């Protein structure tokens, strides 16, 4: 196990190098001069040139890239070109908001999806199964922003039960989590049903039932544990997607998180903030997948991590 973890951590290095190259290239290929945006449209040429010199934009591209990688390796992302504040001071508060949103949404999707998937698999081809799968299909097809707007209309405007915007209080958390976690719950439900149906048809499940074990023990102790591996894989991938793709939900509910920050700073050509944000998301995504791989061994001792 230790050797596997070390090997996977070493594999992070080329992945992160590729991410830095991609992010750096895309930001510098984006039309527009950051110095012009900072100085203003009517700024004299001398002012623009001074800003370019101060920001290092006149240096060769390879020099700029290696400076970025060297500073990032020391967790020094410099200062924002837009506000002149340290990037970490701007980034971390927004990151934790988005991280909390992704964690709560993942927990919601796991809880709802597992229950729905298990019921659907145990009662396969019944009205319960058909109804759950139809709801799951609806959840997969429904855009997040539309669901968020509908929840605001129902629970904030019509009923007045929940605040329409913001983040922090339990009441403010409910609708964004439902909005972001609904599609994930649908995916988990469908994957759980498919995996459970494969496991339930195995010989050892029939043997367990023939021994007189209670159906609850057969389902939860024997079937579910072996059916969770593909579900865990999906959950790990979804968490990374939620972390990187929550911008629409944050916009609908006016949540000041990472997604909104990235969009705003891309428009402002604030390269240090955007590069740091994408790099942090990439690191978290890879670490989550490492945790998923390690969890396979705990779910099934026969899994060979080597």
UniProtKB/TrEMBL annotation:
UniProt main location, coarse: membrane
Membrane topology classification: Multi-pass membrane protein
Ranges that cross the membrane: 12-30, 101-122, 134-153, 173-192, 227-253, 273-292
The keyword Transport belongs to this UniProt entry's keyword annotation: yes
Compartments it resides in: Cell membrane
Coiled-coil positions: none
Highest taxon of source: Bacteria
Alphabetical list of Gene3D superfamilies matching this protein: MetI-like
InterPro entries, per database record: BPD_transp_1_N, MetI-like, MetI-like_sf
Family note: Belongs to the binding-protein-dependent transport system permease family.
Annotated protein name in UniProt: ABC transporter permease
Source species of the chain: Lentibacillus salinarum
């Amino acid at each position: 196990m230790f050797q596997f973890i070390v090997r996977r951590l070493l594999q992070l290095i080329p992945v992160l190098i590729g991410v830095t190259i991609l992010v750096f290239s895309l930001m510098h290929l984006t039309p527009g001069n950051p110095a012009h945006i900072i100085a203003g449209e009517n700024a004299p040429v001398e002012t623009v040139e001074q800003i370019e010199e101060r920001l290092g934009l006149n240096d060769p591209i390879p020099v700029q890239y290696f400076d970025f990688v060297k500073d990032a390796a020391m967790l020094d992302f410099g200062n924002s070109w837009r506000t002149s504040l340290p990037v970490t001071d701007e980034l971390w508060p927004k990151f934790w908001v988005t991280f909390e949103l992704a964690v709560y949404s993942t927990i919601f999707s796991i809880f709802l999806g597992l229950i729905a998937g298990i019921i659907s698999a145990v009662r396969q081809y019944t009205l319960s199964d058909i109804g759950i799968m139809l709801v799951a299909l609806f959840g997969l097809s429904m855009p997040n922003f539309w669901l968020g707007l509908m929840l605001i209309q129902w629970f904030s405007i019509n009923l007045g039960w929940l605040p329409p915007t913001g983040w922090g209080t339990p009441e403010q958390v409910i609708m964004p989590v439902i909005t972001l976690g609904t599609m994930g719950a649908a995916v988990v439900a469908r994957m759980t049903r498919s995996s459970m149906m494969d496991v339930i048809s195995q010989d050892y499940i029939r043997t367990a039932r023939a021994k007189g074990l209670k159906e609850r023990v057969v389902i939860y102790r024997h079937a579910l544990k072996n059916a969770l591996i593909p579900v865990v894989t999906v959950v790990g991938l979804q968490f990374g997607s939620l972390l990187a793709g929550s911008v629409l939900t944050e916009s609908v509910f006016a949540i000041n998180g990472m997604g909104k920050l990235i969009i705003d700073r891309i428009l402002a050509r604030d390269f240090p903030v955007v590069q740091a944000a994408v790099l942090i998301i990439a690191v978290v995504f890879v670490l989550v997948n490492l945790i998923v791989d390690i969890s396979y061994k705990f779910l099934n001792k026969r899994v060979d991590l080597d």
